[in-house]
Amino acid sequence: MSNQRRSGLQLPVVDFLDTSILVEILDVPHMNGHRAEILAQMDVRLKARVRFVLPTATVIETGNHVFQIKDGTARRACATSFMSMLRKTASGEAPWKLHERTWDGAFLSLLCGGEATGMDLADHAVRQQLGTGDLSIVAERDLYASRVQADVRIWTLEATMGTWAELA
Question: Which of 5, 7, 57, 166 sits between 20 and 30 A of 63, alpha carbons compared?
Fold first, then answer.
């Protein structure tokens, strides 16, 4: 539990969207088994004034899933929806904001160090915990949290990623 929540302060809540959530929202075939539940949860969170942030790795990983759809017609339809989603994000029309920051040497150092997970990238690989994409989401979340007064979490359906969804 974050120090801010322990102290009793009511801070704004920010959820970083994991790929497991965005593929449900986008309705990627064979990755959309919880779509209705996710859309309902998103509505509840929006009404509770939770703010959403789209990390870089989520965009890249979601795009990779879209491009791997076997059926060409379904792939084109999903890619078109994905492109529309990205354009709405760029223009500020989406219910989330893109996490705009640069991948620089300092960020790569955080990524290699595993950020708040307590394990570096190599340990994650050996233990088959978080991949580089997931580690980058954790690192982005932690960088964002260091700059704002908010309870910053990761919204995910993945059990392993869920271990690091809340700040320590």
Answer: 166
Run of H or E including 106: helix 105-113
Pick from 159, 144, 140: which is nearest to 59 by CA? 140
In DSSP terms, 98 is beta-bridged to: 54
- On whether the CB atoms of residues 117 and 135 are closer than 8 A, the answer is yes
pLDDT in tens, 126-154: 998 899 999 999 999 998 999 999 999 99
Q: Is there a contact between 13 and 165 (Cβ–Cβ < 8 Å)?
A: no
3-state secondary structure at position 17:
strand
Q: How far apart are CA 58 and CA 21, in angstroms?
A: 9
Record the pTM: 0.89
What's the CATH number where 25 sits?
3.40.50.1010
For residue 94, being part of any structural domain is answered with yes
